[in-house]
TrEMBL record:
PANTHER family: AAA-FAMILY ATPASE, ATPASE FAMILY GENE 2 PROTEIN HOMOLOG A. The lineage of its organism: Eukaryota, Fungi, Fungi incertae sedis, Zoopagomycota, Kickxellomycotina. Pfam families: AAA (PF00004), AAA_lid_3 (PF17862). One of its GO terms (molecular function) is ATP hydrolysis activity. This is AAA-domain-containing protein. One of its GO terms (cellular component) is cytoplasm. InterPro entries: AAA+_ATPase, AAA_ATPase_domain, AAA_lid_3, ATPase_AAA_core, ATPase_AAA_CS, P-loop_NTPase. Keywords: ATP-binding, Coiled coil, Nucleotide-binding. Belongs to the AAA ATPase family. The keyword Nucleotide-binding applies. Residues 43-164, 259-393 form the AAA+ ATPase domain.
């Protein structure tokens, strides 16, 4: 098999589950076509996705395509008219479909393409069967009006039906991203029998607006410790300072040990600070709350402080890792901060000092410039523990490479990875390197990734970040 795409994150998996068996079938269709480039294997090339207005056809299709790194080319009569209204315009659209990257040709309302336009659509669907990285999906509210000849050459027909109770719960949890209490979501699910995704989301949006939810992204962390490499020098410190206090709260309390309330992760860009925070949340089965720092800045007087207070209020309601990324951007030295920055610093102090002793929450912050931090933030009871996350050395880079490629087929794997580890790359850069090599192998139609694929990926990266000469 060729190299596969990365597994879907928990959030997208929940969205697929919200569409039941139909969601799984569409996922299998898209991933099967994108990942299967071996000639002779049976693969679906085209699908008709039908369902009533608002049921979620466009949402499900575009979300999966984007998560699978698939370029989307949308074809509808409106676009054809915008290109001149002639059948030659439709020919040009189809001719523009690339052959060297994963692409989804999305045909909207195929029942409207009649005459020569319908013939052109049918011809392209047939042609797509010989395009290894192209899949065709058609969305329609009226599948019975699609021409019989077109329906006969489409490989599959997936019907989206109004969600049942279990599916409504998955859709609500996906949309609300835990920003609504479970009791509110459960009540909405019970009261919305027969409603489709668009109607559910409208109801949830109204509920969120009424509750004035915080400016933060709340999600279930999908990163595991085994996904992270090169941390042997700091793993014990992370375990003792962060994971143990959350996992063994009762033991710490009985022994009279007061663990850190907050931890500052500091180190160069790309060393995995955010990934570490996500893995910690997964390890202790806590929600991961990523604060959108720019969203804290409000034009109205006092609104920025209210937004920050709402974030903390949400965090203490449930087991949480509250992650403040690039904290120095706002919470730097008070001497250098503006008026809004100074007020936010004061509000942060207040929130940190007001967290209840029994709250199952840990504050993590990340910065590339710890020297810019206000020293008052780092005192006991606030961000009172600092952990340095350095750029990986050779052994760490090799560990990251092995973990990042453990599911991939690589020619002369050990030798190739040892050679790659000589390049002075960060963890994030190594991930990008591996991803680029996968795409290079896909373009060659190969089931194995070669040293040449990694060389091509390296050459496409910023040379300033590559200190090892490729000989």
């Amino acid at each position: 098999m060729p190299p596969t795409t990365q597994p879907l994150d928990d959030t997208t998996t929940r969205l697929v589950a919200g569409f039941g068996e139909s969601g799984q079938r569409l996922l299998q269709f898209l991933s099967g076509k994108i990942e299967n480039t071996v000639p002779g294997e049976l693969v679906s090339h085209s699908v008709l996705l039908s369902g009533q207005s608002g049921i979620g056809k466009s949402l499900l299709l575009t979300t999966l395509a984007e998560k699978l790194a698939c370029k989307i080319i949308k074809v509808n009569l409106g676009r054809v008219i915008a290109h001149g209204g002639q059948h030659s315009a439709l020919r040009r659209i189809f001719a523009s479909v690339p052959h060297t990257q994963p692409v989804l040709v999305w045909i909207v309302d195929p029942e409207l393409f009649c005459g020569i336009y319908g013939c052109l659509v049918e011809a392209f669907v047939q042609k797509s069967k010989s395009m290894p990285m192209c899949c065709v999906a058609m969305t329609s509210r009226y599948p019975d009006r699609v021409s019989v000849s077109l329906r006969c050459i489409v490989d599959d027909h997936i019907r989206l039906l109004p969600p049942g109770k279990t599916e409504r719960l998955q859709l609500c949890q996906w949309y609300a991203k835990h920003n609504l209490p479970p009791a509110d979501i459960a009540q909405l699910v019970e009261a919305t029998h027969g409603k489709v995704a668009g109607e559910l989301f409208a109801d949830l949006s109204a509920m969120q607006k009424n509750r004035k939810l915080p400016m933060a992204v709340v999600e279930s962390a999908g990163v595991r410790w085994e996904d992270i490499g090169g941390l042997s020098n700091v793993i014990n410190e992370i375990q003792e300072s962060i994971i143990w206090p959350l996992r063994y709260r009762d033991r710490f309390r009985r022994l009279g040990i007061r663990p850190p309330r907050g931890v500052l992760l500091h180190g160069p860009p790309g060393t995995g600070k955010t990934m570490i925070a996500r893995a910690i949340a997964h390890e202790v089965s806590a929600n991961f709350i990523l604060v959108a720092i720019p969203d804290l800045i409000k034009g109205e007087v006092g609104e920025s402080e209210k937004a920050l207070a709402s974030v903390f209020e949400s965090a203490v309601r449930m087991p949480s890792i509250l992650f403040l990324d690039e904290i120095e951007a706002i919470f730097g030295s008070r001497e250098q901060a503006g008026e809004v920055g100074k007020k936010l610093i004061s509000q942060l102090f207040l929130e940190l000092d007001s967290i209840p002793e029994d709250a199952n929450v840990m504050i993590l912050a990340a910065t590339n410039a710890p020297e810019l931090m206000d020293s008052s933030i780092l005192r006991s009871g606030r961000l009172d523990k600092k952990i340095h996350i350095p750029r990986p050395d050779y052994a760490s880079r090799l560990d990251i490479l092995r973990r990042s490629t453990r599911h991939l087929s690589i020619s002369n794997k050990s030798t190739t990875l040892e050679w790659l580890a000589n390049n002075s790359l960060s963890g994030a850069e190594i991930k990008a390197l591996v991803r680029g090599a996968c795409y290079s192998a896909i373009q060659r139609g190969s089931a194995d990734i070669s040293k040449e694929d990694f060389e091509a990926s390296l050459s496409a990266m910023n040379p300033a970040n590559i200190l090892f000469s490729k000989k």
